[in-house]
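Q: Sequence in, structure out?
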Amino acid sequence: MIEGRYLSSLLELPEDAETAPALLRIALQARLPEVGMPELALSDGSWTLVDSSSDLALLEEKWLSRLMMPAADAPASRLLVGKVLQMAGSRVAGDGRWVSALLAVGMLLCVGAITLAWTGLGAWGFVAIAVSVIAFEGSIGLKRVSSMPFDPGRYWQMLPWIVDFAMLLAGIFAIGMGRPERMFAPLMLLALLHISRGKHTGWLGRLRDRTLIASLVAAGGFLGNVELAIMLCTLLLALFSLLPSKQASR
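A: Exactly. Output:
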């Protein structure tokens, strides 16, 4: 897989030159890493060449649908973002500026959430966290498309932890109690969020969603008690983790 910016030298080759050796030479000169294609992608027809322009739209729709298909335990926000990216198609999937823009929006929202909670606007801080999750999911999804068939990298796996850190600080500042005490409820909330990961599939798995949790805490904040909302979400996650998993039921 070679990025398009490396292919300009192909135009300088004579007409009778072999394309495959030329591409290999370009990749070696650019010191591009060699990663083998999975055998399944080559055998199941998911990696094919486009023979005619009439097939392009249909193949693009199927490809994006397969690529954006969330896992069985994917959060609801990831499912929503995947549907939006499928509808947007190549208009945004092939533009790296969208990846950077959504990433920047997510970062700014996390910083803004902490600032809002610090100034006493905890409910609005959790609204910002809920929206930041959607922005990060969009940037991850687009990065996955632009990096195919390779992995986007470990850096992108750190984005949920940034949301968790913002949620922790926003919860501490919004509660506003003594330093040891005000850390307990947000820490328990995040601990149970990670403990329940991967335990359930289907709609139960999708309920373990940072956007949903942040929205519930924000709703409690607008009703006047962020601490109680965090405790209720923690209790719900505790009960959720006690439910028998699909593997255990077998």
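The domain at 65-249 is CATH 1.20.120.1760 (Four Helix Bundle (Hemerythrin (Met), subunit A)).
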